[in-house]
């Protein structure tokens, strides 16, 4: 009985780590950051991301995300939610977006990302 309880406790202790392991593919846009949902104020030059409110939770605040698009990549920090984003879409700071594409395009499709 004790070993079953210990095993279940171990499984439930590890589950939150898997729940936070997120990845996706979607569109990327950029925004002018300020005070985000994580309680941190950021600027246009900070490498940050707002993620869809469908997957955002406070456990993701401060987590790093690798973002890839057509052979370019950038690492950003989750600081905000994006209520207007679809489930795989992300909203980057202008400096992070410019590492993936020219900001004049406004939106890029097929961006792959994963939270590390």
Automatic annotation (TrEMBL):
InterPro entries given in the database record: Expansin_CellWall, RlpA-like_DPBB, RlpA-like_sf
Domain RlpA-like protein double-psi beta-barrel, first and last residues per copy: 65-109
Which of UniProt's keywords are assigned here?
Answer: Signal
Any keyword Signal?
yes
Q: Where is the signal peptide?
A: 1-21
Q: Name one Pfam family in it.
A: DPBB_1
CDD domains, alphabetized = DPBB_RlpA_EXP_N-like
Spell out the protein name for this chain: RlpA-like protein double-psi beta-barrel domain-containing protein
List the source organism: Tetrapyrgos nigripes
